[in-house]
Write a structure and sequence with these properties.
Distance between the termini: 9 Å
Structural class: mainly beta
Shape: globular
Strand content: 35-45%
């Protein structure tokens, strides 16, 4: 639930629809979960004999195989994404890389490793795909490279520690990555002797930025020092890099991270921010003159506000808060191709949508709208196109695209989850609002039992989200919250 203003277009329901609120004690909760398990086994075993939509089980939710991280090819014709394979025998889900042809609608699995593959990225010319995995007896995740036309992937890096956070250089000659420093000889000697006693929060290695040459596989360190790189992004022309860095990778030092701009070689770093709030979504404007970032602060950089948009001069200078009266929480942001606008994703209470703001006027507009969550979003400036997933009551996150031109409407690209409502009985979801103790409107989501009858009282399960910031949002759900299963058991869920 979220404390905040209600959008004018959202219905105001003053009260919940006759639920009987109950508190599940340990025994009652265990009983409910046992019922869920029994229902899962029973319904699963009879699934083939039953015709028409049926209640979902926990097994159905685990088998849903969600899509993660869709990436559009440079020519705009294909997608890459990761989709999980459920291995019940090994008791695990393994993510593999898939390629999807937008025109034909054909999907092809590209990787079949025994360990998960992740972070697939097209090369700038579209001829190669980089991804992260470890194979055979490798101890650490490495970068692998595969030709788009097909063939076996080859290992590109042989780094001493696991790599992640990949980004291609603009010319395709290099791949940047983040990796923790190798343990010192003294640390390694102690571990060999089983001397593994250490002080709390002192067992860490700093994380730094590297790059590897695609042709030769030669690695080069970009940053070095007693600090950790949290995030980074090269400029569009490849000459500079914007990044966030903190004293250590520890959570306690998260709020001491700051934004820096430096040359692509790591020289001449310029500190952009100086505060006690963590920054993210850092990106240089197309002309390299400004830095965009998001942080949980107001214009005085007081902490613990909704995440807001900021811009600052790339050469150094005061940061400016955009849209100081924006009521919602910004999740991620990026510049438009011409630098006139900033596109961003925002949590509007129990919904998540795309927006854009004109930097000069600070006027903003919503680009998507519905009882849904827009997730996995990326913007492709050269193609003038947004790619994202929509998770909603009847769909677990198919991929959609939105052209940048004014008046364009989102178009569905993949159709993996179109038949969910034909296969399963799915609970009704509803946004509800009520007055909090201080008079501020509070918003939440109410799920109805499958057998709901108007005027009848039902037991209510309250699922509070983590935080305390952020909120629950319209989405399909998962095996982690199993609202579909609880609704099948006759519960209302708030």
């Amino acid at each position: 639930m979220k404390v905040g203003k209600r959008a004018a277009s959202e219905p105001a329901n003053a009260e919940l629809v006759h639920p009987t609120s109950i508190r599940l004690g340990t025994a009652r909760l265990l009983c409910a979960l046992m019922c869920v398990s029994v229902l899962a086994v029973g319904t699963s075993s009879n699934a083939t004999a039953q015709k028409g939509p049926r209640p979902m089980t926990i097994v159905d939710l685990i088998n849903m195989r969600p899509i993660r991280g869709p990436r559009l090819s440079p020519d705009g014709r294909q997608l890459l994404f990761v989709r999980g394979d459920v291995d019940w025998k090994e008791n695990r889900t393994i993510g593999h890389i898939w390629r999807f042809d937008i025109e034909s609608g054909e999907a092809m699995q590209l990787t079949y490793g025994e360990r998960p593959e992740s972070s697939p990225l097209w090369s700038p010319d579209g001829t190669h795909i980089a991804f992260v995995t470890r194979r055979g007896d490798e101890e650490h995740n490495q970068i692998y490279l595969m030709r788009t036309a097909g063939g076996e992937a080859r290992r590109l890096t042989d780094h001493a520690t696991s790599v992640g956070g990949l980004e291609w250089s603009h010319d395709g000659q290099y791949i940047y990555f983040l990796a923790r420093d190798e343990k010192s000889e003294q640390q390694q000697a102690r571990e060999e002797k089983k001397d593994d006693v250490y002080a709390f929060d002192e067992d860490y290695q700093q994380r730094h930025l590297w790059r590897v040459a695609v042709e030769s596989g030669e690695g080069k360190r970009i940053t070095e020092g007693d600090f950790s790189i949290s995030s980074y992004l090269p400029s569009q022309d490849g000459s500079t890099i914007v990044l966030t860095r903190a004293p250590t990778p520890l959570l306690d030092d998260w709020d001491e991270s700051e934004v820096y701009v430096m040359s692509a070689s790591g020289d001449d770093p310029v500190r952009i921010t100086d505060n006690l709030v963590p920054e993210g979504s850092v990106e240089l404007s197309p002309d390299g003159s400004q830095v965009l970032f998001v942080t949980s602060a107001n214009e005085e950089f007081d902490f613990y506000y909704n995440d807001n948009l900021f811009v600052a001069p790339a050469a150094g200078g005061p940061s400016k808060l955009l849209m100081p009266d924006f009521d919602y929480e910004v999740f991620g942001a990026t510049w438009s191709a011409d630098g006139r606008y900033i596109y961003f994703s925002a949590n509007t209470g129990v919904r998540q949508d795309l927006f854009r703001v004109e930097v000069a006027s600070e006027r903003y507009e919503r680009l998507t709208e519905g009882d849904h969550s827009v997730v996995g979003w990326s913007y492709y400036a050269k193609l003038g196109r947004h790619v994202f997933q929509i998770s909603e009551r009847t769909n677990a996150g198919d991929v959609w695209m939105l052209e940048e031109r004014r008046g364009a409407r989102p178009e569905q690209v993949t159709h993996f989850f179109d038949d969910l409502e034909e296969k399963y009985l799915l609970p009704r979801q509803e946004a509800v609002q009520w007055a909090g103790a201080d008079g501020v409107t509070v918003e939440g989501l109410l799920f109805y039992p499958l057998d709901y009858e108007e005027g009848k009282r039902y037991p209510l399960i309250v699922q509070t989200h983590g935080g305390p910031a952020s909120s629950d949002r319209f989405a399909f759900g998962s095996s982690g919250d199993y609202v579909q299963v609880l609704a099948a058991l006759g519960y209302m869920v708030l």
